[in-house]
Amino acid sequence: METRFLGNSGFKVPVLSLGTVTFGGKTEDFGGTGVAEATRLVDICVDAGLNLFDSADGYARGASEEILGQAIKGRRDQVLISTKATFRSGPGANDVGSSRFHLLRAVEASLRRLGTDYIDLFQLHAFDARTPIEETLGTLDDLVRAGKIRYIGCSNFSGWHLMKSLAISDRHGWVRYVAHQAFYSLVGRDYEWELMPLGLDQGVGCVAWSPLGWGRLTGKIRRGQPLPERSRLRSDWVAGIGPQIPEEYLYTVVDALDAIAEQTGKTVPQVALNWLLQRPTVSTVIIGARDEAQLRENLGAIGWALTPEQVAALDQASTRPKTYPYWHQAGFIERNPFPTA
């Protein structure tokens, strides 16, 4: 499997990584993968060269990390682990956020659940506006120096959140974010407006999450057809907090994907994932899998490439009106060109 540098670091990661949000889940929204099935999925991934596994302390209240730890037992040196913290992990006043108190406890708890003494990539799951950024970054720097974390990243940050954090790290000589785990897909291209140019300028690699648009680009959702019986989009929770995608826009994108899938002999998800792998700043794309069949299909997104004409067709179908000031900047393309690798 192809590997890429994670942002402006010397750390290489596979272009596809496996998300473990389904590990240990108890709901239909995110599955309930147990140890045996998780171990089988990890086996398939490692055999294919996919050795990066992404988790979080908030997935299944820590059960995801526990199951991942059991699935990689005896082969820690063969895999890379990414996990996250910031979201609430308990009822206490300090069981949430990116304070020194919470992060130190969160990292120690993740290490215990994962059965390891270090985390390859540790990311803040969200921005904490109630904690001084200096406190957060100083803590992460201490954890890196202590050998408990190798690299740090963030997730779901605004452009100014990320840029201010990088500036503070530079000012104090602390470790910098090299990754931004961001929502990015053919039906979720807001990342391109500010975070992508920032990533190129500052050397922050994109770890793309939900690359199939919260289940919308699976090939099972089409104009005039009901939702599949088993779909995240049937969940009130997902519909309530997830990105709202206009139906006609979604169908336009799916029509374009169908046409290119027919041209290439690939599936709709494979085409959608391959498009992402050709975008600037993308270091790795997190794929999900409820079962072995879904995992093997997603692994089929690599080893080939869309043509420039096919990429352009998908770009055109998925373009949406920009908010201010991005629409204004786009009017001066000579001075504000679209990012290129």
Describe the overall structure:
The chain starts with a strand and ends in an 11-residue tail after the last helix. Helix 8 runs antiparallel to helix 11. Strands 3-4-5-6-7-8-9-10 form an eight-stranded parallel barrel, surrounded by six helices. With 341 residues, the chain is of the alpha/beta class. The chain has one domain (3-330): NADP-dependent oxidoreductase domain (TIM Barrel), CATH 3.20.20.100. The protein has twelve helices and ten strands. The mean pLDDT is 94.
Helix-strand blueprint:
Layout lengths: L2 E3 L6 E3 L1 E4 L15 H14 L3 E3 L8 H9 L8 E6 L14 H15 L4 E6 L8 H13 L3 E7 L3 H14 L4 E7 L11 H8 L2 E5 L26 H6 L5 H18 L3 H10 L4 E6 L4 H8 L8 H11 L7 H5 L11
Parallel strand pairs: 3-4, 3-10, 4-5, 5-6, 6-7, 7-8, 8-9, 9-10
Antiparallel strand pairs: 1-2
Helix pairs in contact: 1-2, 1-10, 2-3, 4-5, 8-9, 8-11
CATH C-level class: Alpha Beta
Approximately how much beta-strand content do the residues carry?
A: 5-15%
Mean pLDDT: 94
Number of helices: 12
The ordered H/E elements are EEEHEHEHEHEHEHEHHHEHHH
Structural class: alpha/beta
The tally of strands reads 10
Total separate domains? 1
What is the overall silhouette? Answer: globular
The CATH homologous superfamily: NADP-dependent oxidoreductase domain
Helix content: 25-40%
Largest sheet: 8 strands, parallel, barrel
